[in-house]
Design a protein that fits this description.
Blueprint: E1 3-7, E2 10-12, E3 18-25, E4 34-39, E5 46-52, E6 55-60, E7 68-73, E8 80-85, E9 94-100, E10 103-104, E11 108-112
Parallel strand pairs: 2-11
Antiparallel strand pairs: 1-3, 3-8, 4-5, 4-9, 5-6, 7-8, 9-10, 9-11
Length: 114
Amino acid sequence: QVQLVESGGGLVQPGGSLRLSCAISGFTSDHYAIGWFRQARGKEREGLTCIGSNGGTPYYKDSVKGRFTISRDNAKNTNTLYLQMNNLKPEDTAVYYCKAPFGWGQGTQVTVSS
């Protein structure tokens, strides 16, 4: 059974940082692109960033470019996607999801507030 499980969300003050993780299990190949989405209350889900199977230059939505960094660890027995988020703003408040061709994670809440 393929699973994507996000973690690392929480409450942070404006200007702070968080690192989200997405642990992927049940899928042996790492030859796929994977990314992060978010959905704020009352808004549509939006794509933020994605990275290919062989690294390369990730895509970033303009609103997070320069503040968020995506990375993946495809080491043996480890298949994890990360999102380092710096200089967080109140408008970054949302549920964050990792997305792969085979499914979505359950999401992790990020709240940016003083």
